[in-house]
Specification:
The chain is an alpha/beta fold. The chain contains eleven helices and twelve strands. The chain folds into two domains: 158 residues, Rossmann fold (3-Layer(aba) Sandwich), CATH 3.40.50.300; 112 residues, no CATH class. Helices cover 31% and strands 22% of the residues. Helix 3 packs across helix 4 and helix 4 packs across helix 5.
Length: 344
């Protein structure tokens, strides 16, 4: 098999705060292949943006990678200097659209001028080449090419978001990380942007990591996915496999919590409880206190990410081989049946 484009391997990330350390990400591992549309999903606070920021060396000042590796085309990048990252990796190889990036374009400069400036700093392109590149990208994201001669404030929110996506692709990166690219938009605009992301992936020969809290968006658009809970990867693998037979209680319940076009009338269940505070060493399953099927063993040690059968699917649930059976019973029955505790 060829080498993955990006590998996250046993990653731990902590934040220093006045109340002690936050173990925001624990032992996270996943890989993204060339030309792959990858989804990273989890509830608010699960560590999605933290992982994304760590990939481009953009963690907040109080955050740091304390274990593990981030490799891009096999080369460790988490230990690169700021200069190496900005000269070799950022924008040219890995483009990152931060969460809530709606206002990240310069409001007082015409978009064509912003493109020319960007090209001047990072490339030896002519002015015309920069303009042609932006025009081409506008068309890829569904904006009329002639609108590059306007100011960002002349665009609606959805159009600005598309322009930001166009700019992020400007220097022909191999990987685009888009953190909640559609959350602030209405449903129609969300849908249009997602459709464009898919065609971008094909036309621009780029891998995309899309971050979202909505698992149904990932089921509809991505090839592979990782589900995060409390800074741990709960489940990882091929989207079809995970849709058809989730192998972690969190991804199973998350799937139940979003509407499914195949079952539009289904009651949407809510996952009760909150993830743990992550102030101490995370040497337990972070979903155990919310899991209807947890046992004492789930909090005795950190669950390893293990392969489910021979397919492209990995789970960190130690009871994964019972999931299908457990999922078909009511949680109350199952809990008493297996004699598990709630850890509350
Ligand atoms: N600068 C920081 N200092 C301290 N804690 C932080 C900092 N940034 C994030 N955290 C904490 O790290 C954990 C992960 O946060 P992160 O922003 O990565 O979550 P997220 O999955 O992106 O959530 P959301 O869906 O709300 O964007 C949370 O517990 C959060 O409170
Ligand atoms: Mg976030």
């Amino acid at each position: 098999m060829s080498e993955p484009l990006l590998e996250i391997d046993g990653l731990d990330i902590r934040y220093e705060t006045k109340d002690g350390e936050i173990h925001a990400v624990t032992d996270a591992s996943f890989a993204i292949d060339t030309n792959e549309f990858f989804g990273l999903v989890g509830e608010s606070g699960s560590g999605k943006s933290t992982i994304a920021k760590s990939i481009i060396g953009g963690l907040d000042d109080n955050g740091s990678v304390t274990a593990g590796e981030i490799r891009f085309r096999g080369e460790p990048i988490h230990s690169m200097t700021e200069r190496e990252l900005s000269e070799r990796i950022r924008w040219k190889e890995i483009a990152y659209i931060p969460q809530a990036s709606m206002n990240s374009l310069d409001p007082i400069m015409r978009l064509d001028k912003q493109a020319v400036e960007l090209a001047k700093v990072h490339t030896d392109w002519s002015k015309q080449r920069a303009i042609d590149r932006l025009t081409e990208l506008f068309e890829v994201v569904g904006l009329p090419g002639e609108r590059i001669y306007e100011y960002p404030h002349q665009f609606s929110g959805g159009m600005q978001q598309r322009a930001i996506i166009a700019f992020s692709l400007f220097l022909e990166p191999s990987l685009l990380i888009a953190d909640e690219p559609t959350t602030a938009l209405d449903v129609i605009m969300q849908d249009q942007i997602l459709t464009h992301l898919k065609s971008i992936q094909e036309e621009e020969d780029v891998s995309i990591v899309m971050i979202t809290h909505d698992i149904s968006v990932i089921f509809e658009n991505c090839d592979s996915m990782a589900v995060l809970h409390g800074g741990q990867v709960s489940e990882l693998g091929d989207v079809t496999r995970m849709f058809d037979s989730p192998s972690h209680p969190y991804s199973y319940l998350l799937q139940q919590a979003f509407p499914d076009i195949r079952h539009p009338k289904r009651d949407l269940s809510v996952i009760e409880g909150q993830p743990p505070q992550l102030q101490d060493e995370v040497d337990y399953c972070t979903f155990a206190n919310r899991c209807p099927w947890s046992t004492d063993e789930c909090v005795e040690s950190r669950p390893p990410l293990q392969a489910v059968g021979d397919d492209n699917q990995y789970t960190s649930c130690i009871r994964y081989d019972e999931i299908e059976e457990l999922g078909h019973r009511s949680p109350e029955n199952t809990r008493s049946e297996v004699g598990g505790s709630n850890h509350e």
